[in-house]
């Protein structure tokens, strides 16, 4: 299976304390780089979240966001701290005794005093467990998305490989024709200037031409690279760096093919190869 490095996943879940939402975004990168944004209540989860992401992914820039929305106040259980309220009222009574006519606070103002109104404590351990469980589900979705995208990338690469193989086969077919065409051009030029050339010298010129324009080795290496690329695509796994190296080798051979070209058809073939290689290289950048 081939994985792309580009994907998005989002999962939500409700808990007794509120709702949790994970969002994961990944794009291509040379290594695995993780950036996290966690709510303050769950800040302690960061090391475990990084560990889990590192266990599932090997390359890509991953942005992870966890949102926690507590339950509305009306749905939470409130308790009044009776001893704290009694102390507050005693203090207010003492102030009224000293200050005379002091304004008495309302019931709402009394509840706002720190420590009077108690809200049920947040069960952080349970919330952490639910957040990690939801992260695993979100990672499942992210990996599935990367796999679907990777499958499409493999299809695109296979199409480009087919086109490259046809070009390589066509250049092989043209090689004998270019030698024959050079022989005829040389004879025609000699005929125009009405000079004769020793047959041995003619053959020497043709041998020199063949040596300078011979691209058999380049075609053999291109064929080998095509086979290796297909093998890597069939094997799957973490092949992004291997494919990136093969794209560099493809480009090197195509450049040499173009520099040795003595026929416009071979020049055009080298250009078409470079176009296909660049299209493949752009897609390979997204493969894990």
UniProtKB/TrEMBL annotation:
Coiled coil: none annotated. One of its GO terms (molecular function) is hydrolase activity. It holds the Pfam family YicC-like_C. Keywords: Endonuclease, Hydrolase, Nuclease. Its cofactor is a divalent metal cation. It comes from the Bacteria. Residues 2-154 form the Endoribonuclease YicC-like N-terminal domain. Residues 172-288 form the Endoribonuclease YicC-like C-terminal domain. PANTHER family: UPF0701 PROTEIN YICC (PTHR30636:SF3). Belongs to the YicC/YloC family. This is YicC family protein.
């Amino acid at each position: 299976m081939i994985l792309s490095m580009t994907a998005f996943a989002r999962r939500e879940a409700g808990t007794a304390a509120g709702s949790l939402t994970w969002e994961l975004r990944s794009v291509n990168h040379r290594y695995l780089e993780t950036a996290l944004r966690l709510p303050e209540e769950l800040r302690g989860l960061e090391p475990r979240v990084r560990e889990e992401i590192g266990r599932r992914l090997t390359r890509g820039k991953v942005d992870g966001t966890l949102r926690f929305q507590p339950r509305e106040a009306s749905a939470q259980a409130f308790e009044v701290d009776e001893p704290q309220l009694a102390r507050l009222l005693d203090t207010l009574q003492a102030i009224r005794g000293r200050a005379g006519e002091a304004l008495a606070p309302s019931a709402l103002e009394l509840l706002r005093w720190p420590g009077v109104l108690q809200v049920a404590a947040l069960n952080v351990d349970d919330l952490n467990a639910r957040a990690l469980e939801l992260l695993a589900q979100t990672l499942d979705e992210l990996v599935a998305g990367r796999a679907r995208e990777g499958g499409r990338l493999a299809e695109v690469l296979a199409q480009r490989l087919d086109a490259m193989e046809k070009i390589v086969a066509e250049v092989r077919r043209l090689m004998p024709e270019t030698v024959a065409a050079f022989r005829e051009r040389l004879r025609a030029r000699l005929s125009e200037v009405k000079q004769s050339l020793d047959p041995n010298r003619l053959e020497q010129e043709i041998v020199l031409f063949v040596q300078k324009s011979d691209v058999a080795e380049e075609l053999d290496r291109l064929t080998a690279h095509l086979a290796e690329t297909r093998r890597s695509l069939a094997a799957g796994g973490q092949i992004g760096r291997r494919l990136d190296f093969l794209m560099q080798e493809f480009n090197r051979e195509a450049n040499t093919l173009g520099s040795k070209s003595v026929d416009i058809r071979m020049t055009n073939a080298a250009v078409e190869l470079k176009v296909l290689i660049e299209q493949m290289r752009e897609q390979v950048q997204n493969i894990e």
